[in-house]
Design goal:
Blueprint lengths: L1 E4 L2 E4 L6 H8 L2 H4 L4 E4 L2 E3 L14 E5 L6
């Protein structure tokens, strides 16, 4: 199965959940940070990552907060 995360292609072979996709894409350090996730343009809350299935061709956007002044 092929997904797109922040525009980059990612292939998954098993466990087609949003949590699995995020773990495959993000580094351990990034996983510890706060971020928001949208699946095909719809926000998904952190509590739903494990129960949200992803399908071939889905688009996931990961947004990290930006600090500045």
């Amino acid at each position: 199965m092929n997904l797109f995360i922040n525009g980059q292609s990612l292939s998954l072979t098993d466990n087609n959940t949003l949590e699995h996709a995020l773990n495959a894409f993000l580094t351990e350090q990034q996983q510890q940070l706060s971020f928001a996730v949208a699946l095909n343009g719809d926000f998904v809350g952190k509590a739903d990552y494990l129960t949200t299935d992803v399908s071939n061709g889905d688009s996931i956007d990961i947004l990290f907060p930006i600090q500045g002044g």
